[in-house]
Structures are given as C-alpha cells and as structure tokens.
C-alpha cells in the first residue's frame, strides 16, 4: 500500500514568502448629468390659499391635540369625519401598515 503526499498549495493561495504587488488604478473621469426639468419655487405662487386661511381663521393652533379633545370640540362631527377620511386615505395608499 503506497501513499503519496500531495502538494496542498494552490496557485490562488499566497505562500508565506510571496510578495504582494498592488496596481495603481487610474480614476475614470465622468461628467455629471444635470436635470433638464423646469425648476419651480418650493412655495406656491398661489397666495389665495394663505389669504383664505387668514381670512377664515383656519389656524392650526386651534386643532385638537387628542381624540378626547376632538370629540369635545364644537365641530366634533366635522373633525371626526375629516379624521376618518384621512385614515381611509392612508389605508388606500398603503402608507400606514
């Protein structure tokens, strides 16, 4: 019965006395693409919305902060319906999971 000893080193494995060589990689210059879309201002030019809010006193300061406050509010029915509509929209758009 004869056994032979095989070489356990493979070409992919570096040996103990191998020198590691590094290559210098030249960076590739690329030009940036710029958007061709029309730039619009972040704030709407439709100031009617803001004037109606001021005119009708639709201030966020008066919104109820909790469900209990909303149900005890003078416009509780409107508030409750708006809340249901908002929750339905969130559900339909799969925003709230």
In short:
The chain has helices spanning 48-55, 67-71, 76-92.
Order of helices and strands: HHH
Count of runs of 4 or more consecutive helical residues: 3
Q: What is the structural class?
A: mainly alpha
- Count the strands? 0
Percent of residues in β-strands: under 5%
Radius of gyration: 35 Å
- Could you give a short account of the major beta sheet? none
- What portion of residues is helical? 25-40%
Outline type: elongated
Whole-Å distance between the termini?
Answer: 70 Å
Query: Low-confidence runs (pLDDT<50, min 5 residues)?
Result: none
Q: pLDDT average, as an integer? A: 75
Can you characterise this structure?
The chain has a domain of 35 residues. It contains three helices and no strands. It is elongated, with a radius of gyration of 35 Å. The chain starts with 47 loop residues before the first helix and ends in a 5-residue tail after the last helix.
């Amino acid at each position: 019965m004869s056994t032979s000893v095989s070489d356990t080193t493979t070409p992919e494995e570096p040996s103990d006395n191998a020198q590691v060589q590094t290559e210098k990689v030249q960076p590739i210059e690329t030009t940036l693409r710029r958007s061709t879309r029309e730039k619009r201002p972040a704030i709407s030019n439709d100031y009617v919305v803001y004037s109606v809010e001021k005119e009708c006193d639709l201030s966020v300061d008066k919104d109820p902060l909790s469900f209990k406050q909303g149900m005890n509010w003078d416009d509780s029915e409107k508030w409750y319906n708006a809340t249901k509509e908002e929750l339905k929209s969130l559900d339909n758009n799969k925003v709230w999971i």
